[in-house]
Design goal:
heterotrimer; A: about 280 residues; alpha/beta; Elongation Factor Tu (Ef-tu), domain 3; Rossmann fold; 2 domains; seven-stranded mixed β-sheet; six-stranded antiparallel β-sheet; 15 strands; globular; B: about 325 residues; 3 domains; 13 helices
Chain lengths: ~280, ~325, ~350
């Protein structure tokens, strides 16, 4: 077996779940049927369809899952379009894990945790949330605020409804941008919903979603008294190597692939505004 | 040259002060006497760095694609050769003519510092040009060159005249050169196929795919070049083989055929000194002989030989049989 | 110290290349670049600046990485590398050797880039001191001594002799193999040349560039400096500066479909190119100003910030000579570097 950082392993797609009209979750195992590698929540991997290209995706499954890796992938470019056309049994390549994870064994321990996600932004958070559920006793209260354009665009809706909502000391707030038939939950954008909820400023917050959502949600959190040193997010930039050498994913002197993708808001404040 | 420069600065000042134009495109001083850069001046204050000297070889017309989209009128100083590119860009709807104020400036040929260095001049701090003689001043003393030996390649055979102007700053008339622009092409044509192939192979194998030739070329004004577009299926940043290097340059030559004004910028900027202009000039020579004399960029209107059809047009087979009219 | 008469250099080249490939400055079609020496090539050891730097020897412009074979649904990854054979890289100037140390920081940092490492270990680097630095040289600004290059073997060339000094085990071994060609001596000639070269270096127009503002703590100030717009306004967005630069190390990884499966290769890329950071849903560096700024911030601020203050410019001056529009790192340093530049 080749053990090289730029040479990937072959993965077999064992399950494809259509989450939303443009998001599919792919379950991948090695050719031996086993999990490809271990990771921590927030870390990413390079998935490739040879001949098409290779892209960085966050690993959506929890490290506590011993059987497989999952990637929730939105169809938006060349590689993702081809991935979406694949069927169960198809082979792709995977290399990783890359980057720094959320401090689930550090700063998060013993804390009340607030997860705020928009659209496909739930993908990297799902790994942390399920990790936290697995080691429930290590963490305090958990609040999830999750929004999408419409009810159909909510990723992992089934898991949220059947599992997360039944978790003790675990609150889930869902919202969609515009009213929709059959939706009797909250309607409105995530940033304003966060403010409405009047969340406890002492929670440790994790934000993930489109840049505009992050910007306004962060503003809202700061108004509520949250400290930037307790707010985390993940960044996404163009990557080719994943190991800090190809030179394109830097923000200032930090490489998103190596020094990120998880950053604290106070760390981001010190970096140039180029992401 | 200094006289001309002063007049240009004066005129730029007037145009900016009066508000007739919002910006002036010209050249600014470098670190040495020979490294000016194209520059955009938006205030009288900025004009302190304005320069027009023997080393202002860069063609400014392509910058107008972006500059002329900005608010207000853009004034630009164009040398004779640059005006052909300008016309061609207007013709191709890349520049709105009414947004630009063209000031024709004299050009007695521009110098190539690389040629001077190769002939032994170093640390050149100033040049003086007297007729056909160029004197390079440096701490070690003066070196004198025949002007023809140290001109930029593109200037060696240039007999171009301004094809467009709203006004002019011309203090010295340039004498008509007695040179054959197509002599180098004829020399290539005189080679055997094998010799010619060997020539281009040795030249093009130096290519580092830096895209300087393409990016500087006023005829390469595609918003997304086929070589940069992943959807084209041929995008690439490296040459797979020597053959591919040839393909890049040959495809580019085909794409600019009939539109290339022979401004010579491709050869000026090539870091490996590949005589790229010869590919384009071969096309120009062929167009001249197959369809009658034609110079791209002489006007901003009218039909061009490769984009119009007449019944008398040559058939492809005739070309290969060498039955040119 | 050893020496060999200048007229015997071809014999030296022949002796080396009889043992292993010899990569050195070669003149082809009027330009000097590093390439494999052979009897029929025109060696050009005295050329001060090759167009491209020697970095190709360890980090080729284009390099095959792996192959993918598909049989039905079964996908296989095949490592296409062969074991690297020893080679000699001859004639490397002090600035270019320093640049290799910069590349080492990138490619040998954890996780090690094994493609680079294999070539680096296979290569024996013979440096050559400069004796005629020119006006675009400014290596001394980055602490490089053009008269005392490092490497496995250091050499000096004057009108009569090439002087030879092995520095490492690899260098000693090569020297032992070639010993029949050498005579002893040359210390005085080398010392004389060194002091002459250092005197030239000190008097060069760029010798006193002030880098004092390029510090990690000024990162945001420098990033937000208004001067970038003017500095970059004539930039064509070509890759000339990047590709002639001895330290630029950005690369792209691409797939190429062949009749025998998919070939994955990597090739030099340029942060000056508009598609460098392009993603399906946006681009973090949309303007040429941003891309231009990235290149120089990387060399003067980001890289030193991550590598104990080591700049990733070595002052070779290639970009000074080769930029089509005469933009370059010196103009950036003079504008943004510090008060002493005024």
């Amino acid at each position: 077996m080749i053990n090289e950082t730029l040479i990937p392993k072959v993965g077999v797609i064992t399950d494809i779940r259509k989450d939303t009209p443009d998001v599919k979750t792919f379950r991948v195992v090695g050719t031996d049927g086993k999990k490809l590698f271990e990771h921590m929540p927030g870390q990413c991997a390079m998935v490739s369809v040879p001949g098409v290209g290779e892209c960085m995706f966050s690993i959506t499954s929890s490290p506590t899952n011993q059987e497989y890796l999952e990637f929730s992938i939105k169809k938006c470019g060349c590689v993702t379009t081809v991935l979406h056309a694949l069927e169960v049994g198809a082979m792709v390549t995977v290399r990783g894990p890359y980057g720094k994870n959320f401090p689930v064994e550090g700063d998060f321990k013993g804390k009340d945790l607030l997860f705020i996600a928009g659209g496909i932004g739930l993908a990297p958070l799902r790994s942390v949330i399920n990790y936290v559920r697995h080691y429930r006793e290590n963490y305090g209260k958990v609040v999830v605020v999750y929004g999408a354009r419409s009810a159909d665009d909510l990723v992992d809706f089934e898991e949220i409804q059947t599992e997360w909502k039944n978790e003790p000391n675990f609150e889930v707030y869902l919202t969609i941008d515009r009213p929709q038939e059959g939706w009797d939950d909250h309607v409105g954008f995530v940033p304003s919903y966060v403010k409405e909820l009047g969340l406890d400023k002492n929670m440790t917050a994790v934000l993930c979603g489109p840049p505009i959502m992050i910007k306004f949600t962060l503003q809202g959190l700061l108004e509520l008294g949250f400290e930037k040193s307790r707010v985390y997010t993940t960044l996404e930039l163009r990557m080719k190597c994943g190991v800090g050498k190809c030179g394109r994913c830097n923000v200032g002197d930090k490489f998103v692939c190596k020094d990120g993708p998880v950053f604290r808001m106070d760390e981001l404040d010190e970096l140039p505004d180029e992401y | 040259m200094r006289e001309v420069e002063l007049k240009m600065i004066e005129r730029a000042k007037q145009l900016l002060e009066s508000g007739e134009v919002a910006r002036v495109i010209g050249w600014k001083k470098g670190e040495f006497c020979y490294d000016p850069s194209p520059a955009c001046f938006e205030s009288v204050e900025e004009l302190k760095d304005f320069v027009y000297d023997w080393f202002c070889g860069a063609n400014l017309s392509k910058y107008l694609i972006e500059m002329a989209k900005k608010e207000g009128k853009t004034a630009v100083f164009l040398k004779p050769c640059d005006t052909y590119s300008f016309n061609q860009l207007v013709k191709e709807h890349r520049i709105k003519r009414e947004n630009v104020h063209v000031i024709a400036v004299e050009c007695l040929g521009k110098l190539d510092i690389e040629k001077m260095k190769a002939r032994g001049a170093s640390f050149v701090s100033a040049v003086e040009v007297n007729g056909d003689e160029v004197k390079a001043v440096s701490p070690a003393g003066e070196t004198t060159f025949a002007k023809a030996d140290v001109l930029l390649g593109k200037c060696c055979v240039c007999n171009k005249t301004h094809q467009v102007k709203d006004e002019e700053i011309i203090l010295h008339e340039r004498a008509e050169k007695d040179v054959d622009r197509f002599a180098e092409v004829a020399a290539l044509e005189a080679m055997t196929e094998d010799e010619r192939f060997a020539f281009w192979k040795s030249q093009l194998s130096k290519c580092i795919r830096c895209n300087a030739c393409r990016n500087v070329c006023p005829a390469c004004s595609c918003i997304k070049c086929v070589f940069d577009n992943p959807a084209s299926g041929i995008s690439a940043k490296a040459n797979d083989s020597e053959f591919e290097e040839q393909m890049f340059h040959i495809i580019r030559a085909f794409h600019v055929a009939g539109r290339c004004t022979d401004c010579g910028e491709c050869s000026r900027v090539c870091p490996q000194n590949i005589p790229l202009h010869l590919l384009n000039r071969k096309f120009i020579k062929d167009i001249d002989s197959f369809y009658g004399e034609y110079q791209a960029g002489e006007t901003a209107e009218g039909k061009t030989p490769l984009t119009s059809y007449t019944e008398g047009d040559l058939e492809a087979g005739d070309v290969f049989k060498g039955e040119a009219k | 110290m050893l020496k060999i008469a200048k007229e015997n250099l071809n014999a030296l080249y022949a002796a080396i290349s009889a043992k292993m490939p010899l990569i050195m400055p070669i003149k082809r079609a009027g330009q000097v670049n590093y390439g494999p020496w052979s009897e029929s090539e025109e060696a050009s050891i005295e050329t001060l600046k090759t167009v491209k730097s020697p970095k190709d020897a360890f980090f080729p412009q284009s390099e095959n990485m792996m192959k993918f074979k598909t049989d039905g649904k079964v996908l296989e990854v095949i490592d296409v590398r062969k074991a690297e054979q020893p080679f000699v890289l001859f004639g490397v100037k002090a600035c270019d050797y320093k640049a290799i140390e910069v590349l080492d920081k990138v490619f040998l940092a954890d996780p090690v880039d094994t493609y680079y490492k294999a070539k680096r270990e296979a290569g024996i680097v013979i440096t050559l001191a400069c004796s005629k630095p020119e006006e675009s040289c400014f290596c001394s600004v980055f602490g490089v001594d053009a008269a005392a290059p490092a490497g496995d073997v250091s050499t000096w060339l004057d009108g009569e002799y090439l002087y030879w000094q092995a520095n490492t085990e690899k260098g000693e071994a090569l020297t032992a193999d070639l010993s029949a060609l050498f005579a002893e001596g040359g210390e005085d000639a080398v010392a004389a040349q060194q002091s002459a070269t250092r005197a030239i270096m000190q008097a060069l127009p760029y010798a006193a560039l002030d880098l004092s503002r390029f510090k990690p703590e000024n990162l945001n100030d420098l990033f937000n400096d208004g001067a970038w717009t003017e500095l970059s306004e004539a930039c064509l967005g070509c890759g000339t500066c990047t590709f002639v630069c001895p330290t630029c190390q950005c690369f792209d990884i691409r797939d190429f479909k062949t009749s025998e499966g998919v070939l994955r290769y990597r090739c030099w890329d340029s942060c000056m190119y508009s598609d460098f950071t392009l993603m399906a849903h946006g681009n973090s560096r949309n303007t040429q100003m941003q891309r231009f700024r990235q290149r120089f911030m990387h060399k003067l601020v980001y890289f030193p910030s991550q590598n104990d203050g080591m700049y990733s410019c070595v002052g070779c001056g290639r970009c000074v000579n080769k930029c089509p529009q005469n933009l370059n790192i010196v103009k950036v340093i003079k504008t943004l570097g510090g008060k002493k530049n005024d």
